[in-house]
Design brief:
heterodimer; A: 525 residues; alpha/beta; Rossmann fold; two-stranded antiparallel ribbon; B: 790 residues; abc type-2 transporter like fold; 4 domains; 5-stranded mixed β-sheet; 10 strands
Amino acid sequence: MLKNILLIICLISLVLSACGPGAASTAAPTSTVRSTVRPAILAGEDIPGVLRPSACPFALPKDLEEGVDVECGYLPVYENRVSDTPEKGGTLRLAVAVFHPPGGPRQPDPVIYLSGGPGASILKTIAGQYEFLSEPVFATGRSLIVFDQRGIGLSQPALDCQEFTQLSQELLDRQLEGQPVSEEEVTELAFETLKACRDRLAQNADLSAYNSFSSAADVHELRLALGYEKINLWGGSYGTRLALEVMRRYPADLRSVVLDAVYPPDVDLYVAGMANYNRSLSALFESCTANSVCAQNFPDLEVVLFEIVERLNAEPVTREINDPITWESVEVRLSGDVLLAIVFQMLYDSKLRYFIPRIIYDVSEGDFNYIDQVYGAMLAMASIASRGMMFSVQCHEELAFSSQAAFEAELGRYPELSGMYANSILGGLAYRLCAVWAAGIAEASANQPVESEVPALILSGEFDPITPPAWGFQAAETLKNAFAYVFPGIGHGASLADPCPMSMMIGFLDHPQQEPEASCIAQMR
Amino acid sequence: MNTQIKPPLSSRLRRNARIIWAIAWKDIVEALKNKNTLAVLLTALPMIFVYYYLPILGTRGEPPFVRVYDAGNSVLVARLENSEVLDVRTYPSEEIMKRALTKADIPELGLVIPQGFDQAVSTGGEAQLQGYVLNWVRPEDAQELLSLIEDEVAFQLGQPVAIVLQERVYLAPDSTGVSTSAGISLVYVVTMVGLLLIPHLILEEKKTRTMDMLMVSPANPNNLVAGKAIAGLFYCLLGASIALVFYRWLYIHWWLAVLSTVLGALFVISIGLLLGSLIESREQLTMIAWIFILPLFLPVFLILMRGLIPDTVINVLRFVPTVVYLNLLRASAAAAFSASTVLLQLAWLVAWAVGVMLLVGWLVRRQDRQPARSVPATYMEETSSFPLLEAATRWLASLTKRSPRTAMVAEAAVVESEMFVGGGGDDLPAGNRDAWRIIWAIASKDILATLKSKLALSIMMGTAILLLSNKALPLLLRSRNAPAAIVYDQGRSTILRGLAASDDLRLGITDSLEEMQKTVTSSPEIFLGLVVPEDFDQQAGSAQVIELEAFVVHWADPETVSQRVAFFEEQLGQSTWGQVHIQLAEQSLYPPAKPEGQSAMSMLSFSIILFTMGIALVPLLFVEERQAHTLDMLLVSPARISEVVIGKALAGAFYCLLAAVVLFLFNAYLIVHWGLALLTVVLGAALAVAIGLLVGIISDSPTTASMWGGLILLLVVALTVMAILPGINWLPAVDNLLDYLPTSALVEMLGYSLAGEIPLLQVWTNAAALLVGVLIVLGLVGWRLRLADR
């Protein structure tokens, strides 16, 4: 009962992280000194805008040599970029890594990767993602720059809410001790915990300074600090919104931009959430019906799903899974809303969607073995985000322009999905939290479409349950040199999910003014 | 009226105590002179060394473990993960880290990076970390570990760091680290000594007829049982104290360790006494002891296999007294334990010991009431308390209608008569034909006599059990597991990883074709080796059929393979919403020449069985004959001593080869090069028999033969295991030495006979090494015979 709600909360805290493999490789500029002689933790005074080389503060991807293939450092920047007196807010440090292709870069303009979330650390997980992230970038002979945005991961400070993890443990302990906790209580506890996190973070950070506006300025400053004349941006999910903000404010910095799973500024993520998920589910049901193997093995998928959701909501089942936080076997309760949250997360991945019908049928037949595995993996994913950063960004520039009344009207339109959204961070809880977060309110322009002439490649996935293809086309309307595509069979994040979008991205990075060769899309399923 | 004046209680107690002590003291002293006792002790104690040194050898040369809890997202964690001189594991809480630390069986460091560490360092504050080691780690070891890790942390951070050792971490009663391995070695020593030595003490009495004297002495049956128990306790505690001295740094609650050892020993002794009271000969003991040893010792390992064995079974096994003893020992090494649990466990052990003791007392009293029997003159005439055993023995005896010993005497007479009469007096100078006739007569007699020897049969039964267990375990695993495939995934398929989460099948994913093929060939079960193309995921959902190539090991039966292929085609088809076709490669896979997995295990059992037959069986052909005085008859017959020896060698070789034939029958499907396999078996059998001959010649009784045979067998098996076992880093000198040993040559040659390709040069080198080994041992045999001749 406790964990199922927490799972929903956790899941939605990551909804904007780009799915699929990720991250970077070899690195860059000046120094050839090996990292081992550099301190990993920097002492002394920071000078804003001046990169401070350091040992790489993350687990290195396999076979990379520090100082040769990758160089790391921290970029000190002013915390408060809005205030008239920026010094007032002090400085913060952005953790940066520059990966070079084997033999060094052949092109002068690197690609900077902007991760999603907001709040997902790319550097903490770079060892597992490097191989994938570096492939299209190195194919163009460019260096790949990866950094944790302000408030995230290895950047200092990171707006993490460990309290939330502790709450998970405390609730589990109470559950094990036989103390019943109602769903309402859990929601309330989650709210109080996040509020307490906010109070703690606010003691050392100006939470109104952690948003896309400031991060866009950080990207600009990073370019300057590394000495590049032009850069290419590659944003995924929330990273596309940040990229669009850079396009709006620093167009001169940019040679090209790749926007993958676009989250434009002029949409309402919260109000549109249920419609987006519903659209994705419908696409899944249709594709299953159209496929002879799926249709034969898993007929009437939609009916079976919502029947089992209803049944599980009425009578949740208790399952034993491996808790990724404690690494111990724990009991969790699987309700219909949790099942929907798991399906939602699986739709992010273009290949995992093939397993969704099977899971639905397994659960409907009382076989929970497979979903237990997925459940455990989802909990693990949910524990690696800087949630404080997410609220600062979303409260500042998304929920500030969102209507709670419209959201509640949507709950009525999608009653079968309402349980998953009503008290989640993508719904009611987010509105409540923003009322106390004190993230400030972005300028009205932050909610307006971005107009730009910078060449842009816009990629969308057919099954994307959170940033639908329509948002890609919506963004493209005001981008004069944009090429927008929808990729069949793809979920949230196309560039690394299939060779076709990847090849188009490589072609685009080589010749951003030209429309990329897109004939491969017809071959995709 | 017949009235008896009973002495006062205190006087009776004193008298009984004196009697008990007299019996106990006699046994203690006698046992010290007894080769059986020494043999039992000598074969039990090495296990302490094995358990003590194996973890150390297993981690030699490996980077030390550091278990880290990072309270504040420090960059140090990532830096340490990049380190090549440390093996770092991170944990989500300090408590879990400490719990993981308690699983260590060598010194390890637990490290806590406090919250705000990075900030403190960056602001010029003191860089200080908290270190934890287990309570049993010696201060100098802890300091050495600390210095090494401090240096590496400083290197990674780029500035000096101090690790401050905190209070020691104590083990929990259920810790699976060193307290468990120490406990197992103690349980092993106590069990083996108690179960084998005590019956020997009783048997000695029966053999020397002193048992009858004791029965008619003032000692009552209870005195007898108590006396034997005290003597047994002495030896059990002697063995246990050696183990306790080894692990002296481990135990916190010494009183509990000693008390549980005393009670554990008393329980085992009670079983030993029971065994001793039931059996009548050493041969029976050899056959029956394992029936007690297995159920007492096996649960000790089984309870550690949580996850593999159902919880219900584990919960039941917890009541086995040896498991209770183990758990008490583990509690002795823990900082705290549940007093009620420990008391219950102690009471349970006491109850078992007392219960079995009472049973023994009753049995002895019952014997006391029966007329004193004479100790049988020959073991075939002995009566047994086990009807089945007795029946089996009688049946075997009925094969010749004579007892083995009388049969041996008769056979010797046959040999003699053949020499003098049947062979023809003209050939008395014994030409080659006669020599072979003599040899054949001796060999055939021994082959037949062996079949009638309980000891020989028990050895064969033991090897058969070994063989069956080696074959049964994989079968058991096979029956429980879902179909498995090993996939060489060329395109990092997400679909395959998704499918791997299913419980309906087992999917291992490898990054190279070689790794996949190696796994397929070294598994005891049939794995399907699949090659999944780079664009597998991209082909999903299409109307076209996805083609996969598959490999299977050469011995896989076609029916199972086709079932597996169909199963995976269906599973993969469902997972891709399409059709998958698996095409079997034309060429089957063969294991590499260097044995691993199933091949290695087969070779290990092969070598052990071959050596057991040779080293344990052949000496019996000498010593039993020596005991029956038929050897003297043979030696004064026209048969030359070398012919006698060759005859016995042939008899031994017969059984070695018989064992090999059985092994081949079981493992025929694994063998690729039969010629090489046969050559290996002949050479291996020759070596085993040669060693057996040597043991037989230098032994003057079954006891000494068992002792020497046991020790040499232990050594040879250990060497074979050392040659096979991966993951143990021996000293380079040991590695080099192992390469030149005949046992290594045997293992390598067996490996080649299972492999696809044979490196001819190595085959001949190894064959030569084996031959040299055989010749050296035979040379020793000849030298010893010449000495004896003089």
